[in-house]
């Protein structure tokens, strides 16, 4: 038997009839490595292609046009718009690191000029709306799997709620052709997500996304293979599938059962594609006022807004799965969340 270290694949097809099996599969993935691929999600491949085309169309505008809609404060999440070289929780690591454009469905202005990027708003909203039912399936199963009411997570993420904060982030990692960089450089440094879950799409053949399971210091053995805290496991795109990961609030709300693990995007190695890399992340976000504490009170009773302010302080410096990365990113503290006192 070939042991693969890829995250497990969970098939959502025939959802109603297979719900018990799907719940078991999702729970197994979310409680061991916190990453999984979703197939049988019902999204038309054309819709995903269209999202990538929209993404490329936007980023391929001249830099000046993109800078007209810079990242700005908007609501409590505080960020929408265009940013070059940095991502939230990430760091400037390389001139050719990453460009990002973030949108919220209910945003009234701040959309790219339709004369320059036709249909961007409509196509983006169509894409986001098509992801919501996939999220519903995943989050309702995880709630049931934990013994919570079906809507335990979903009531925090209802996209119709005016306080909903879920957003889409388009990424472009510009071509690295002809560039050189220090070994160990990342395009996104090791981080955990602040979303409940993230649905991620990466351009075919792209390399670089890697995860480090075992955030709490334990090696993990799953049916798919062994994941170790000190080892980065590649998480390449699986054609047709959505890559999903658990984020911090889901770990907190589940009292540590569902794991928000570290991941990073490293620079391509020699022989790997050096062309533009695109990815699209759908960040399913609790409302600002949601208290992200589980029934067993393993983590502090803080709201999502408080968590966003204190995330840095909650992380100790004990976790450094890759010493080189750790060295290169000293200003970001890694580590498992530890309780802090919040007034
Ligand atoms: O682009 C990717 O493959 C991963 C992006 C990511 O981890 C993030 O935006 O949080
Ligand atoms: Fe991430």
Automatic annotation (TrEMBL):
The cross-references to Pfam families, in alphabetical order and at most eight, read: 2OG-FeII_Oxy, DIOX_N
- Cite the entry's keywords alphabetically: Iron, Metal-binding, Oxidoreductase
Q: Name one GO molecular function term.
A: oxidoreductase activity
Asked if the keyword Ligase belongs to this entry, the reply reads no
The family database entries (PROSITE patterns) matched by this protein are listed as: FE2OG_OXY (PS51471)
Q: Which residues form a coiled coil?
A: none
Residue ranges annotated for the Fe2OG dioxygenase domain, each copy included: 164-288
Kindly give the InterPro entries that the UniProt entry links to this protein.
Answer: DIOX_N, IPNS-like_FE2OG_OXY, IPNS-like_sf, Iron_ascorbate_oxido_reductase, Oxoglu/Fe-dep_dioxygenase_dom
Gene3D superfamilies, per database record: B-lactam Antibiotic, Isopenicillin N Synthase, Chain
Top-level taxon of the source organism: Eukaryota
Q: Which family does it belong to?
A: Belongs to the iron/ascorbate-dependent oxidoreductase family.
> What's the name of the protein?
Fe2OG dioxygenase domain-containing protein
Species name: [Myrmecia] bisecta
């Amino acid at each position: 038997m070939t042991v693969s270290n890829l995250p497990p694949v969970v098939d959502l097809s025939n959802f109603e009839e297979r719900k018990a099996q799907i719940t078991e599969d999702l729970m197994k993935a979310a409680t061991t490595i916190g990453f999984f691929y979703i197939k049988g999600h019902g999204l038309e491949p054309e819709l995903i292609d269209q999202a990538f085309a929209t993404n490329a169309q936007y980023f391929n505008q001249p830099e000046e046009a993109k800078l007209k809609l810079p990242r700005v404060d908007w609501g409590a999440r505080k960020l929408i718009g265009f940013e070059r070289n940095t991502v939230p929780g990430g760091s400037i690591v390389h001139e050719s690191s990453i460009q990002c454009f973030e949108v919220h469905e209910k945003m009234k202005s701040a959309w790219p000029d339709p004369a320059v990027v036709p249909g961007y708003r409509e196509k983006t909203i169509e894409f986001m709306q098509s992801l919501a039912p996939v999220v519903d399936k995943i989050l309702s199963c995880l709630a049931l799997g934990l013994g919570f009411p079906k809507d335990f997570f979903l009531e925090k993420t209802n996209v119709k709620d005016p306080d909903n904060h879920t957003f889409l982030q388009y990424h472009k990692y510009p071509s690295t052709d002809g560039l050189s960089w220090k070994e160990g450089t990342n395009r996104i440094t090791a981080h955990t997500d602040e979303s409940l879950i993230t649905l991620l799409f990466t351009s075919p053949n792209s390399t670089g996304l890697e995860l480090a399971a075992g955030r709490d210091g334990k090696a993990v053995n799953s049916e798919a293979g062994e994941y170790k805290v000190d080892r980065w496991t590649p998480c390449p795109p699986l054609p047709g599938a959505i890559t999903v990961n658990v984020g911090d609030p889901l770990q907190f709300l589940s009292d540590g059962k569902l794991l928000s693990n570290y991941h990073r995007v490293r620079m391509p190695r020699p022989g790997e594609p050096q062309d533009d890399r695109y990815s699209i992340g759908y960040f399913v976000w609790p409302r600002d006022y949601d208290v992200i504490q589980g029934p067993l009170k393993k983590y502090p009773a803080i709201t999502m807004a408080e968590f966003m302010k204190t995330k840095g302080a909650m992380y100790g410096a004990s976790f450094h799965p890759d010493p080189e990365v750790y060295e290169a990113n000293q200003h970001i503290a890694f580590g498992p969340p530890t309780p802090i006192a919040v007034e």
